[in-house]
Design goal:
The protein has 81 residues and is mainly alpha-helical. It has three helices and no strands.
Length: 81
């Protein structure tokens, strides 16, 4: 008996991406029943959303880092005497 699939919300980006690749490969094989194919498709959709969440979060972090790197410091903003 196989262990239950981990909760998608607990997966790292790499885990979700790798599982999504396996799901796509399984679907492309075409050897599953209709019910199995539907379950695979639904899990694949959820995995794709999880990957997108990770990528959006990573982009937000990069954007914040870029803004912080280009923002003037308080010393730069202080008037000179």
């Amino acid at each position: 008996m196989t262990s239950p699939a981990p909760a998608i919300s607990d997966l790292s980006y790499e885990q979700a991406r790798d599982e999504l690749i396996r799901v796509v490969n399984d679907l492309e094989q075409g050897s599953s029943t209709l019910e199995q194919s539907l379950a695979l498709w639904e899990r694949g959709e959820a995995l794709a959303r999880r990957c997108e969440e990770w990528l959006i979060g990573a982009k937000a972090r990069l954007d914040a880092a870029r803004i912080a790197a280009t923002a003037p410091t308080t010393e730069d903003a202080a008037p000179t005497r």
